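Reproducibility note. Readers wishing to regenerate the assembly model reported in the main text can use the exact inputs given here. Chain order matters: entities are listed in the order in which they were concatenated for prediction.
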Amino acid sequence: MFIGIEVGGTKVVMAAGTGPNDLTELVRFPTETPEATSAAIVRQVKQYLALYPTIRGIGVASFGPIQVDPAHPEFGVIYETPKLHWRGFNIVQLLKAHFPDIPVALDTDVNGAAIGEAEWGGGRGLDTFAYVTVGTGIGAGLYVNGKPVHGLLHPEAGHMLIRREPGRDPFPGMCPFHGDCLEGLASGPSIEARTGQRGEHLPDDHDVWLLIGDYLAQLYVNMAMIAAPQRILIGGGVGLKPEVIARSRAEFFRLVGGYLRALKQPESLQAFIQPAQLGDRAGVLGAVGLAVRASPLTKATQLEAQ
Amino acid sequence: MFIGIEVGGTKVVMAAGTGPNDLTELVRFPTETPEATSAAIVRQVKQYLALYPTIRGIGVASFGPIQVDPAHPEFGVIYETPKLHWRGFNIVQLLKAHFPDIPVALDTDVNGAAIGEAEWGGGRGLDTFAYVTVGTGIGAGLYVNGKPVHGLLHPEAGHMLIRREPGRDPFPGMCPFHGDCLEGLASGPSIEARTGQRGEHLPDDHDVWLLIGDYLAQLYVNMAMIAAPQRILIGGGVGLKPEVIARSRAEFFRLVGGYLRALKQPESLQAFIQPAQLGDRAGVLGAVGLAVRASPLTKATQLEAQ
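Running the prediction on these inputs yields the following structure tokens for the assembly.
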């Protein structure tokens, strides 16, 4: 058994298991101060350890930016998040301090979700795909040849530059770093800032959903041009809204202008841009997947299989 | 020995060798009709075969879009290029027809250059980097964990969407597919279309170089956000112009706004955005690298080394 911990910007989700078929019920609590949240995480890990004596590892899929390189001295440290009291917090150190004998694997929340989709969801059998979540923030993981891309730190696709037409959308954007980057224009809070209402209270035919779909299409186009994923899997409350998905497919098709051979038929967009398959378990299953992959037992099995 | 063939949009470059230290002098001829160019390629391959009896393979790094998946029935076929008479041409078939006993490896020109830089140039030791060329067209290769990313077909970063301020740049762009995509706004021909003169005849302090540098900075920002390369290596006459590189570094720094921790110091941009190191041999060395990597002999050596 492995423990999965998804540390999201608004809530923490935990479960134990080895995959979707034996996953325990999800345990959720809000992401509050690091102190309160840490205490809740540690308490829940202790419960799993009491219930399952064979816990082999803990996987953490966390919001970022976060240092995910195990060789880096700051491994586990959260960097320039707008959640100010979380800056400098080290989730790996916390777990190591309380559970020194259990291996801890770490990646970003979106890379975790990408691993979950690769193992058990919409990324199975693909060389290259992206996982995009659009909710309170916008994040994306890029999965290439069997693992998430880390590179300089990890991708931050929410902060991509996109085109805004001030005549159509006078909202200047609300990213504290970049103003009208993608996240500043298309995240959940931007919808409330524009309309005065939270997205869940707006009618499905509100114009703002077309605007958000058009902005997300620009993300999908630039991803397709820069990294050529075979599929883009979507998560998050805003991203999953059917009106947003439908519009982003149509706008992607219009923008790409027949240039990408594999996407020349509008129908091909149904598969290219689609909801992630693990639903609300994607993040925590990804965290479990991280722990499974990091386990020496798993590596031994994989080597035998080769 | 291996033969490298770089098939570019304006010229073909060929050489033989196993790497930069034993590469023969470069042979160049213009890219004309497929018939004339094919004949010249075949003639040159025959010369190498006569000179070096131990030719183990041919590597081709070609302009695209081109089918680079060896398992695809259209492997080697050039797709929607603006060079109309090249559409449907199959470079692999040509070589197989004339030299049935020699293995042929194929990738795009930019992926080839990325392989060359990974083996012998500015990509050595990096997990993730990008190679960008800006000249007649704009292309980019993305190299992740030991190989170029292919995905859906291969990246086409020249056709990324970027921001144009019509007040500053009224030029509507000249991409036949997308108008003012990056290639439509920042390739060599766009400079001539705006100024009436070819770039090489313009003074170094012409405003157009600042404009091009700013557009390329947007490419680099979006690459950094989507794929987080550890380095971006630049090629091509426009891309390599010192005024363009300097401006694109400064604009990248301004746009990212301190968000990317590894690039918080302006000096870090010197290493992050830098000229490719193999110069005018990058393409053909990449083609040689492709053949070397595809060779069963090389694979045997690599396995022994493990």
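We highlight two features of this model. Residues 93 and 100 of chain B are 9 Å apart (CA to CA). The longest helix of chain B spans residues 207-227.
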